[in-house]
Design goal:
- The protein is an alpha/beta fold and about 230 residues long.
- The chain has one domain (about 5-225): NAD(P)-binding Rossmann-like Domain (Rossmann fold, 3-Layer(aba) Sandwich).
- Helix content is about 40%, strand content about 20%.
- The chain contains seven helices and seven strands.
- It has helices spanning about 15-25, 40-45, 60-75, 100-120, 150-170, 185-190, 200-215, and strands spanning about 5-10, 30-35, 50-55, 80-85, 125-135, 175-180, 225.
- A seven-stranded parallel beta sheet has the order 3-2-1-4-5-6-7, with helices on both faces.
- Helix 4 (about 100-120) runs parallel beside helix 5.
- The longest helix is centred in the middle third of the chain and has 22 residues, at about 100-120.
- It is globular.
- It starts with 5 loop residues before the first strand and ends in a 6-residue tail after the last strand.
- The relative contact order is 0.16.
- Bound molecules: NADP nicotinamide-adenine-dinucleotide phosphate.
């Protein structure tokens, strides 16, 4: 792998994405961190001189994705891995959900990873890894939670997108995998299920994902993998 190749992490300002970013940096990798807010990233950047580049962007906006890709191209960025981690969850009973709820979740959870991946593939090295972060709700045959129909459908679509990417990008030597996470104690989980306590921390999951994006594609390609202690959590 080129020494200067970077890992791109979306949804890096908090939760799992922040911990993936932290772990990659600790291991000496260069990281481009993408999210709308960046206070937490501003606080760690000086600890990793030359390793962390912060790129604020709203990934639900196509123009913002295009601008981001142009900026990375202009700086001749070379990419070793992409973690499509940014996501939203709107907990609403199916019968109360409206077009806006569906579009918002599909836009960020499926369309954004597709458009971002498409824009960044030309900058990826042979041997690069596209890692999509889905949910147990998007894993076929898993127990489903009420209120998460649109979220789970969006994550299921992301999982299947992964299988398609593995086929379409194979001639470029790029692998693609999808991790379907069980519950992790983050703001997303706490907002959706107030008062919930689960045993898995963002640090634990971040470490696992950071290792997987660097090494997992040596043994997996086009795989949809559950990462959960039990089903349901
Ligand atoms: N926590 C769980 O139990 C769990 C379980 C299964 C799967 N997951 C998945 O794991 C991923 C991370 O979840 P999390 O729990 O860490 O969530 P989180 O704490 O809510 O963090 C979400 C991240 O996504 C970013 N984001 C949200 N909207 C964005 C947008 N429009 N453009 C760019 N970035 C945006 C947020 O940053 P800004 O707000 O600053 O933009 C934040 O950094 C998600 O895909 C989630 O679906 C989580």
């Amino acid at each position: 792998m080129s020494k200067d190749a970077v890992y791109i992490v979306t949804g890096s300002s908090r939760g799992i994405g922040l911990e993936v970013t932290n772990q990659l940096l600790r291991n000496g990798h260069r990281v481009v961190a993408i999210s709308r807010s960046h206070d937490s990233l501003d606080q760690i950047v000086s600890g990793y001189p030359g390793l962390l580049t912060i790129k604020p962007a709203d990934l639900s906006d196509s123009a913002s994705i295009a601008q981001l890709a142009n900026e990375l191209k202009e700086t001749e960025t070379v990419i070793a891995g992409l973690v499509n981690n940014a996501g939203i969850l709107i907990n609403k009973p199916f019968m109360e959900s409206d077009r806006e709820d569906w579009e918002a979740q599909l836009r960020l959870n499926v369309i954004a990873p597709a458009l971002l991946t498409r824009s960044l593939v030309p900058m990826m090295i042979r041997g690069a890894h596209v890692l999509n972060i889905s949910s147990m709700g998007g894993y076929q045959g898993s127990s489903k939670f009420p209120g998460l129909s649109a979220y789970s459908a969006s994550k299921g679509a992301l999982a299947i997108l992964t299988e398609s990417l593995a086929v379409e990008l194979s001639d470029r030597g790029i692998s693609s995998n999808c991790l379907c996470l069980g519950a992790v104690q983050t703001e997303m989980l706490e907002q959706a299920f107030p008062g919930i306590h689960v045993p898995v921390t963002p640090e634990q999951m971040g470490r696992y994902i950071a290792d997987f994006v660097c090494n997992g594609h040596a043994l997996y390609n086009g795989r949809i993998l559950p990462v959960a202690l039990s089903d349901p959590e």
